[in-house]
Design brief:
With 102 residues, the chain is an alpha+beta fold. The chain has a domain at 36-102. It has helices spanning 16-27, 96-100; strands at residues 38-42, 49-53, 61-67, 74-81, 87-93.
């Protein structure tokens, strides 16, 4: 995040700390700044417990592909955040080649 001196705040913005808090609320409206940043999931392939990093700034509902840190197989990760910042994380197997087998 840029240093405060790099922000282009208007002269009448008031207290810089209040302006910073307002920017944080706009960018990250989930909860009160205590949104979950990590989630624990179990790989649908190898069954290992894996801790993954979450990004609450990417929205309250997210889906993306991430590889297992243990077996390197691809997951479809689904994340949703409650209003209080609690994350609900689910992973499904995402083997594209399974759709083409036959």
């Amino acid at each position: 995040m840029p240093d405060r001196k790099e922000w282009d705040l208007p002269d009448d913005a008031g207290d810089p700390d209040e302006a910073e808090d307002a920017l944080d609320d706009e960018e990250f409206p989930i909860g009160d700044g205590v949104a979950d940043l990590v989630g624990e999931v179990y790989c649908p392939y190898c069954g290992e417990s894996v801790e993954i990093t979450l990004d609450p700034g990417s929205g309250t509902h997210q889906q993306y592909i991430e590889d297992c840190q243990v077996c390197c197989r691809p997951w479809l990760v689904s994340v949703s955040y409650d209003d209080d910042g609690t994350a609900h994380v689910h992973v499904d197997a995402n083997d594209d080649h399974d759709d083409n087998d036959g």
